[in-house]
Amino acid sequence: AQSVTQLDSQVPVFEEAPVELRCNYSSSVSVYLFWYVQYPNQGLQLLLKYLSGSTLVKGINGFEAEFNKSQTSFHLRKPSVHISDTAEYFCAVSDNFNKFYFGSGTKLNVKP
Amino acid sequence: GAGVSQTPSNKVTEKGKYVELRCDPISGHTALYWYRQSLGQGPEFLIYFQGTGAADDSGLPNDRFFAVRPEGSVSTLKIQRTERGDSAVYLCASSFGGSHTGELFFGEGSRLTVL
After folding, report:
1. Omega before B25 cis (within 30°)?
2. For position A74, what pLDDT does the model report?
3. Contact, A8 vs A65, CB < 8 A?
4. Is B107 on the interface with A (CB under 8 A)?
5. Rounded distance, CA B72 to CA B8, Å?
6. Which terminus of chain A is less hemmed in, N or C, by CB atoms within 10 Å?
7. Under a CB-based contact definition with an 8 Å cutoff, are residues B101 and B94 in contact?
8. How far is CA B99 from CA B31, B92, B95, in A?
């Protein structure tokens, strides 16, 4: 089985500042990694994913994440956030697409 | 609509009652998932369907929970003898099962409150 840890439950940041949302996972097998975003009153939607290849992956809305196998991490970054990025972000892992394990989420609060 | 549709969006019931939650996936998606999200937690896996069959139901917490997908499209999650601890948002997601890209398409969820 796998598990995901998102240590930061809330991250406050000012508009146009950079942000990093941390995600660590544990697994005894190779995994695929994902970041989902949930805007208020909306369903979760995929931000980006790592399946194979380059460890730096780029997603929608200027977000990127880097897969670090040795540190079992998949941190999400954005160089300059906007008010519209205020949402809850979930990291997830899966080894076979049958079952996805999600972290407990990080609420990003972008302040003007 | 083109997205995953879940009904009802809100359901309030009394302890001990029976509840059904419906999920209408994106047309053509063969894979369907049910997750449960409790307050302050991330989605927790319940069950995964590939077509009509439950390929993995290891997340169902006990035998009060059951899900069906008789024609490989719409799915219903059924909860018998509801308990207060069943209160949560129940999420449905679908995806292309045959050539899975790993992307799940989620509905907005059904919020269940057991009084």
Report:
1. no
2. 97
3. no
4. yes
5. 20
6. C
7. no
8. 10, 20, 9
Maximum average pLDDT range among A8-17, A27-36, B48-57: A8-17
Question: B6: burial class by Cβ within 10 Å (0-12, 13-18, 19+)?
Answer: buried
Written as six digits, the tokens of A44 are 């979760």
Residue B12 parent element (H or E): strand B10-13
A107: left (phi over 0), alpha (psi -120 to 50) or beta: beta
CB-closest option in B40, B58, B59 to A104: B40
Model confidence pLDDT, tens digit, residues A21-69: 999 999 888 889 999 999 988 999 999 999 988 999 999 999 999 999 9
Closest to A49 in 3D by CA, of A76, A26, A84, A10: A76
- Amino acid code (one letter) for B111: R
Cβ-based contacts of B95 with chain A (< 8 Å): 97
